[in-house]
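Marked as duplicate of an earlier ticket. Keeping the data here for the record.
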Amino acid sequence: MLLLRQDQRMGQTVEQAGRRANPALAALIAESGSSHAGLARRVNELAARQGLELRYDKSSVTRWLDGKQPRGEVSFFVADALAAKLGRPVSPADCGFAVPQAPAVSARTLIYPGGVGEALHALSELGAVDVSRRSVLGAVPFVAAALVAPQRHWLLDLAEDKEPPPAPLDADSPAAAVGEMIGVFDSMDNRFGGAHARASVIRYLTSEVIPLLRRRDLAPAERTALFTAAAKLAATSGWMSYDTGEYGLAQRYMTQGLRLCREGRDKVLAGQILAGMSHLATSLGHTDEGVTLARIGLVTARGAGSPLGMMRLHAMAARAYAANGDESAATTALKAADVALEASRGPADESVWVSYLDAAYLQAESAHCFRDLGHPASAARSATASVSANAGRGRRQAISQAVLATAYLQQNQLDAALATATAGLGMLGKIHSQRSTQALREFRKRLTPYQREPAVARFQVASELVLGAA
């Protein structure tokens, strides 16, 4: 009898879906079990993580069901929200939305190419359009569903790679020269934020390094090393795009960078690219993907001789678990990160790609985890240690200031929270980092219960000059 009633209700739901102007969306909502208000709330949350303030409600979902098309990137947020509930990829087209045709390069760079020539061509085209003809590229959305295929293809490539790691090259090789430039770009990024040198990195990759890789007179070892350098530059382009709020571009550069790692066969670097992809996914609210990407990174880098690389990947897994509310898994991952840190004998014995990682980095990531898990005292201790240790790293210090301010607020220490956040605002004049700005905006949202306090009102006025209106 119970099964009969369930079948009848399901039949009524399907029948109701068929009567809507957008039956595809109605069917997905019914299958996911989402309420209209819950779906609208999740769409607003996903948008807020990308710096967009949307105010959709259950009436908005009704209008979509009645045939109204969401504006801009909203159709992607709807698809991602439903995909998370259903546990499978969902596209805007699956939701019955007419999505404007994206430029071919935007779609092509979401794909993990089969041939490396395709990856080089895609990166060259994306870089040229990104830097010189941005109006042609238009809006480039982050597409959570597109993370699935690169993970699968990378794991297959990893399983099939039986060759030994490439040998180091002479200090005067072309790849070594590219490595020197990478060091300069990384230093600029750490000190001044991603916006400062993003265009320069992309131009260098597309106009200097990729043409080198197309030469036919390169020795195999040299070509392998150059592919690794190109993969790092692509990943750096992605990281800097992430730092400037260009989340869709970040996803595309990182995906292509991972593909180039197949040719360079540098498993430490591949693990770090996967760590970056995990960080991106988690920060945009796709915590399950954040966990999976970190775990694939751990599988990739295990045995590659880089404890610091493993430390970062465990920390990324912890961030995703904590954001998902899984305290047990987050705690286990943080302990594993600490063990990996202790196992490292220092930067001199580590890959150049992870030599910047240290105890202060783990403190910064731990602070995020403790904040999300509701342990403000632990978050405050870790964030304080990070702020003290990172005087030369503007972005990391500003973000840790925002986390520390939140930890104080969670402990009802309003004056300390405002003073710390004000110090963070002062940091933004020295760096160009949307991640830092967004971290302080998230703190400001937490001040809503205190908005009648005079000190909060003064902070809101001061913050508008730096962060924009609340």
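See parent ticket for discussion. The chain is about 70% helix and 0% strand.
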